[in-house]
Write a structure and sequence with these properties.
By secondary structure, the protein is of the alpha/beta class. It has three domains: about 80 residues, Orthogonal Bundle (Arc Repressor Mutant, subunit A); about 90 residues, 3-Layer(aba) Sandwich (D-Maltodextrin-Binding Protein, domain 2), CATH 3.40.190; about 100 residues, D-Maltodextrin-Binding Protein, domain 2, CATH 3.40.190. About 40% of the residues lie in helices and about 20% in strands. Strands 3, 4, 5, 6, 9, 10 and 11 form a seven-stranded mixed beta sheet that branches. A two-stranded antiparallel ribbon has the order 1-2. Helix 1 crosses helix 4 and helix 5 packs across helix 10. GO terms for molecular function: DNA-binding transcription factor activity; transcription cis-regulatory region binding. Belongs to the LysR transcriptional regulatory family. This is HTH lysR-type domain-containing protein. It holds the Pfam family LysR_substrate.
Length: about 300
């Protein structure tokens, strides 16, 4: 790839000529001589091989090609300025990226609120977000690939910050045989029915979570898939209440009338990478996650 023939400073000069309304005004705004501005624009046109400005009366106006290139150049100059700001921020200890790993059961709306609040404070720091299930979060924290992690597992050797719990509800389709018993259900009623469970995304020591007393279980990769299968009449499952609000309201899913355990709360915790100091962006994001986890 050839090196660019036109510099960012040249594009800035052209923008000043157009934005300020002429060569003299651009020279004053940029604290340069008018002849220097004129030479810069003329050199640009020579390097590009096309006219960018044409004189109409006593005023320089953009050609059609000049208008297109000027519009594209504004994005280029803006990105270069953002890159310079990011480099300065990084020199001050600001991170270029924060790696956040979240258990799939964590309410997306809480996470979205935290990220929305983080955006204007991020100073160009990007968030790499990854969803895992159960021990998958733990593994990302232990292998150092997560700066922050939200998990429902107590992870040895880390000091967690407790977040609001997530409530799981035992549900099945209204037409499921369990809803035809017409009495409170016990765990014995569930044992001969198909249970849908979420696969642990961890590879080292995957865990089972919750009640697993059913003789027949189907394991799926996501909460959305589990909700779809159960909503289709295939088995029952404990699903996060926030994930199935609409299905419960519409009657697609119905809470099982269990004597006990129909609803259970799972605590969630925020962990930080203990092997490297938290940068300012990571600390800000952590504080916002904690703040917005308390809202529903």
């Amino acid at each position: 790839m050839k090196a660019p023939r036109v510099t960012l400073e040249q594009w800035r000069t052209l923008q000043a000529v157009v934005d300020q309304g002429g060569f003299a005004q651009a020279a004053e705004a940029l604290h340069r001589s008018q002849s220097s501005i004129s030479y810069t624009v003329a050199k640009m046109q020579e390097q590009l091989g096309i006219p960018l400005l044409e004189i109409e009366g006593r005023k320089a106006v953009l050609t059609e090609a000049g208008a297109v290139l000027l519009r594209r150049s504004r994005h280029l100059v803006q990105q270069a300025s953002q890159l310079e700001v990011l480099a300065w921020n990084m020199d001050q200890g600001w991170e270029a990226e924060v790696h956040l790993v979240v258990d799939a059961a964590y309410p997306t709306v809480r996470l979205a609120r935290a990220l929305q609040s983080f955006m204007p404070l991020s100073k160009g720091c990007r968030v790499q977000l990854r969803e895992e299930v159960l021990s998958g979060v733990e593994e990302r924290l232990l292998d150092g690939s997560a700066d922050l992690a939200i998990s429902g597992i107590s992870i040895a050797g880390f000091l967690p910050q407790q977040l609001n719990a997530v409530e799981f509800v035992a549900v099945a389709h209204p037409g499921h045989p369990l809803h035809q018993i017409n009495r409170q259900l016990n765990h014995g009623d569930l044992e001969n029915q198909l249970q849908v469970v979420i696969r642990d995304s961890g590879r080292r020591q995957p865990r089972d979570s919750g009640w697993l007393g059913a003789e027949q279980r189907w394991t799926v990769a996501s909460l959305a898939t589990a909700a779809t299968l159960v909503g289709s009449g295939l088995g029952f499952a404990w699903l996060p209440a926030h994930e199935i609000t609409r299905q419960l309201a519409s009657g697609l899913l119905k809470e099982l009338p269990l004597q006990q355990g129909a609803r259970r709360s799972n605590n969630l915790f925020l962990y930080a990478n203990k092997d490297k100091p938290l940068g300012p962006a990571t600390r800000i994001l952590a504080d916002l996650i904690i703040e917005h986890s308390m809202e529903d």
